[in-house]
Specification:
With 260 residues, this protein is α+β, with helices and mostly antiparallel strands. It is built from ten helices and eleven strands. Helix 2 packs antiparallel against helix 3. The model has no long low-confidence stretch (mean pLDDT 92). One of its GO terms (molecular function) is DNA-binding transcription factor activity.
Length: 260
């Protein structure tokens, strides 16, 4: 499979983590890949007649949005498939979708179900754009139009920034104290805009950053990696890996079919 990354417009950079094209040539489907949860939403705009992928056990023929909240998912790209993948930063996709995110958590949803008739029109423009550079430019202009329809939520934005800066180690008490609202009110906002409770978002974020430590310090013991990542002990570290990957930390390191 060929993957090509593209520059993101400066105004979209606070919201979009990456934009790439994915082309699956050859005569066979790709191998199954286990994609780990990263609290991100990702749009896949199909520009070929071939189905996009098998996700879980379901075949998706058209453009889709994947909400990888806190569960892993198995993905297999289909032969002949071609799509543009737009991955949002954790928690930052709410500016582009009007549905409360707790209803979308851990789902793969047809883009038409979220953007209605505009999704079909957009897909048609992408198919006939001629080349991938033009397709990416067209999609970014569309996202710019959507961006202006919904305001930022300053409390959510602040919390997400603090979680990122602390690598998931800031406490929930500190977050609510700093923004001056109750834990219950913050939980409602997180469910609406992120799709998780603040506590679960912190836990998944800590796990995500632990993957960096696991990869960068493979020679260390699991206990050392666990402490580097902010876990109290190895038991909690292994528990999170089994929940979020289906494997132990050692198995994650040795498995070439896991994407993170």
């Amino acid at each position: 499979m060929q993957i090509q990354y593209y520059d993101i417009l400066p105004v979209l950079k606070p919201y979009i983590r990456s934009i790439c094209t994915m082309d699956c040539g050859g005569d066979a489907d790709t191998s199954h890949i286990r994609v780990l949860p990263d609290t991100c939403a990702e749009i896949f705009i199909n520009y070929t007649p071939a189905p996009v992928a098998i996700i879980g056990n379901e075949l998706y023929k058209g453009s889709i949005v994947s909400f990888r909240t806190n569960k892993p998912v198995d993905v297999q790209m289909r032969k002949g498939a071609g799509c543009i993948a737009i991955c949002f930063h954790p928690g930052m996709a709410y500016r582009f979708f009007k549905i409360p995110f707790h209803l979308l958590s851990n789902t793969t949803t047809s883009l038409t179900d979220l953007w209605s008739t505009s999704a079909a029109a957009l897909e048609d423009l992408v198919v006939h754009a001629g080349n991938n550079k033009s397709r990416v430019a067209l999609l970014q202009q569309y996202l710019l139009q959507q961006l202006g329809k919904v305001d930022d939520n300053p409390q959510i934005k602040y919390c997400l920034q603090q979680v990122q800066l602390s690598k998931g180690l800031i406490s929930l008490i500190t977050l609510t104290k700093n923004i001056g609202i109750s834990q219950r009110h913050l939980a409602r906002q997180f469910q609406q805009f992120v799709g998780l409770s603040p506590r679960e978002y912190l836990r998944v974020s800590r796990f995500i950053y632990s993957l960096e430590h696991l990869s960068n310090h493979a020679a260390d013991s699991l206990t050392q990696v666990a402490y580097r990542s902010g876990y109290y002990d190895q038991a909690h570290f292994i528990r999170d890996y089994k929940q979020y990957t289906g494997f132990t930390p050692g198995e994650v390191l040795r498995n070439n079919n896991i994407q993170y």
